[in-house]
């Protein structure tokens, strides 16, 4: 029986479901794992990736299911709820199913969005652990990342204070780092706008090297992107050693290897290579691994988790961040290219409220009540917004996949509104399913599960949007035109100069193209909703992530450190001092 999601908060549903959650030992037996393949961490456990993949290497892969969405409102449209509901629905159909989602950042959890555990009866448990650090992967990442900054600043201090002979006596060589060309930042896993720009090293010569610096949020760290795409520990170690921290005064890259810190960084990350295993409230297995944002990074859970999930399960579900223009595009052209894995189907999550917003509805503001247009039937507004859904269906079709549209239902949606979305989706060649997983769990997601099973039985003519050898500017042009709907690309003078230099370097030929763009619009401007026409994509910079092997064209105004709102979630989170249980998470 599902819990009464209309009367119980998410943390209350989680608390009840956790009473029956499998223990690490029970998961081992349920999933036919060996004793040494499960690493207990209190109520959850990690899975020993290397041991599992070695034992199951000859087993045939299961069906690979990706979940994406239309362009969301600032509230999000329920991709994780859909992912978890799909796991539960497939479980109700007695399928051997599992999945993987990204680990949530403490920034959104304690700010506007709240936890990313799903919601209602489509929820991941244990919810408190999931929302507040889990098994320490993000903490390990922050330590690894910030250790590189410690090494950099200490080296700059020593080079400023010692002669070449004195450096040599300490087994150091002069790197001659240019303080104006430090590429790396510090990271913290909160939305802390006051740390976007800082001056460090204030004091005397023993207080570090004085310079401008900054903090970014942990999800934007290159190390987080690396964790999402590595294939094994050797790959992780190599990529960590290639991270560019700064440039010297002659323009040469200074890497973590030059600073002799890459090995220690990998030591911090060695435990994070293994995914964490969690549970839906209906006790289907779901891994949690990596947490890069999609608007500023790759936006995917890990290749490692997908590799073992496809060996362990007949149906493996993974989730991509934000809409299909960002998350799916990066899944399609970056993650699948790096992993060699071919998806069976893509689920496009849609809500009627978001389609009404794209049709010209009032602004949706987190923390404020939804306008009447979103709470009452409005077919005219809905129909005007449906082109956004059709645009994302067309994007998925370009990959050679027939998508399944999931209407993530709210109690305010009317039959006429649902029928309209279904009609347009099916006319566009997509399957369409109504899902009420928030209200009814797996029972509410049976229509979605059946549509996905049906789609998985079809042959996939999978193809990338562009060949690997295509030059950077051409890649950006084709992404802008074919995925975003732009008429072209406008390169700022400095960005174009940098692009030409990068294109001329044969060592960068295999670098992936990782677009940096707002998730709130198909364009670079978050205020432009629906499917804008007659616009050009401006590119004003290119970030180079040599460890991840990404070239990241930057469009619009994107901050790598979000700000905390005036009404953040942390105001409602507390601890019951009698039981020690965390309350107020949503």
From TrEMBL:
GO biological process: tetrahydrofolate interconversion
Pathway: One-carbon metabolism; tetrahydrofolate interconversion
UniProt keyword annotations, A-Z: ATP-binding, Ligase, Nucleotide-binding, One-carbon metabolism
Domain of life: Bacteria
Pfam families per UniProt: FTHFS
Catalyzed reactions: (6S)-5,6,7,8-tetrahydrofolate + formate + ATP = (6R)-10-formyltetrahydrofolate + ADP + phosphate
GO molecular function, one term: ATP binding
EC number of the protein: 6.3.4.3
Enzyme class of the recorded protein, top EC level: ligase
Binding site for ATP: 73-80
The keyword Nucleotide-binding appears for this protein: yes
Annotated SUPFAM superfamilies: P-loop containing nucleoside triphosphate hydrolases (SSF52540)
Keyword Methyltransferase: no
HAMAP family linked: FTHFS (MF_01543)
Family membership noted in the UniProt record: Belongs to the formate--tetrahydrofolate ligase family.
Name of the protein this chain belongs to: Formate--tetrahydrofolate ligase
Upper lineage: Bacteria, Bacillati, Bacillota, Clostridia, Eubacteriales
Name of the gene this protein is made from: fhs
